[in-house]
Automatic annotation (TrEMBL):
Keywords, ordered alphabetically: Cytoplasm, Hydrolase, RNA-binding, tRNA-binding
A GO MF term: peptidyl-tRNA hydrolase activity
Subunit-structure text: Monomer.
Name of protein: Peptidyl-tRNA hydrolase
Positions bearing the site annotation: Stabilizes the basic form of H active site to accept a proton: D95
Keyword match Signal: no
One cellular-component annotation, GO: cytoplasm
Residues engaged in binding tRNA: Y18, Y68, N70, N116
Pfam family, one: Pept_tRNA_hydro
GO BP, sorted A to Z: protein quality control for misfolded or incompletely synthesized proteins; rescue of stalled ribosome
Cited function: Hydrolyzes ribosome-free peptidyl-tRNAs (with 1 or more amino acids incorporated), which drop off the ribosome during protein synthesis, or as a result of ribosome stalling. Catalyzes the release of premature peptidyl moieties from peptidyl-tRNA molecules trapped in stalled 50S ribosomal subunits, and thus maintains levels of free tRNAs and 50S ribosomes.
Catalytic residue list: H23 (proton acceptor)
Sites marked Discriminates between blocked and unblocked aminoacyl-tRNA: N13
Provenance organism: Actinomadura montaniterrae
Length: 191
C-alpha cells in the first residue's frame, strides 16, 4: 500500500457480550462500512480484523482491533506501520460521552477526554493529530459511573434510531475520505 491509502479504525471491545454496548459504536460503524465496501473482515497479524478495499471510490483499510478498548493503540500502530499510512490519513471512529446521542462531531487531534481507547492510540503512535469521528452516546443518567454506562447496551429508545445514526456516521467517514475535514464538519455538525 502507498501513501494514498486511508486507515479507518473503529473502536470497541471484542466478543458478543459487548456487541450492543455504547462503547462499541465504532465497531458498529465499521461493520456497516465493510458492507458498503463489499468485503469481509479477516484476521491480521497486528491483532486486528481488517478489510482492504475501496470505500466511496477511495483506497482504504478498515480495521477493528481484537484487543480490549484500553489496548487499542498496539494494533492501530501495527496497522499504521504495516500499511505505511501517515497519521493524517488515520480516522478513528469512537463513542463520545460529551456529545448527545444522535449527534456526531468530527475533528483532527485533541485530547483523549478520558477515553481509554484514544489514550492508548495516542500513546502508541506518539501523535494525536489523527482524525476522529465522535459518535455521541450522551452522559450517564444520575450518578451512574461513566465506565459502567458505556459498557451497557443502547437503550430501547436509542435502538429505535441506532441504525440511522450508525448509517450517518458511516456517511461522515466517507465524506472525510472524499471531501476532507472542513466539508465533512459542515455537513455533519448540524445534528
Amino acid at each position: 500500500m502507498s501513501a494514498d491509502v486511508w486507515l479507518v479504525v473503529g473502536l470497541g471491545n471484542p466478543g458478543p457480550s459487548y456487541a450492543g454496548n455504547r462503547h462499541n459504536a465504532g465497531f458498529m460503524v465499521l461493520d456497516l462500512l465493510a458492507g458498503r465496501a463489499g468485503g469481509r473482515f479477516k484476521a491480521h497479524r497486528s491483532r486486528a480484523d481488517v478489510l482492504e478495499g475501496r470505500l466511496a471510490g477511495v483506497r482504504a483499510v478498515l480495521a477493528k482491533p481484537r484487543t480490549y478498548m484500553n489496548e487499542s493503540g498496539g494494533p492501530v500502530k501495527g496497522l499504521r506501520d504495516f500499511y505505511k499510512v501517515p497519521v493524517e490519513r488515520l480516522i478513528v471512529v469512537h463513542d463520545e460521552l460529551d456529545i448527545p446521542f444522535g449527534a456526531l462531531r468530527l475533528k483532527r487531534g485533541g485530547g483523549d477526554n478520558g477515553h481509554n481507547g484514544l489514550r492508548s492510540i495516542t500513546k502508541s503512535l506518539g501523535d494525536k493529530e489523527y482524525l476522529r469521528v465522535r459518535f455521541g452516546v450522551g452522559r450517564p443518567p444520575g450518578r451512574m459511573d461513566a465506565a459502567a454506562y458505556v459498557l451497557k447496551d443502547f437503550s430501547a429508545a436509542e435502538r429505535k434510531v441506532l441504525d440511522l445514526e450508525v448509517d450517518r456516521a458511516a456517511d461522515a467517514v466517507e465524506s472525510l475520505l472524499t471531501g476532507g475535514l472542513e466539508a465533512a464538519q459542515n455537513a455533519y455538525h448540524a445534528g
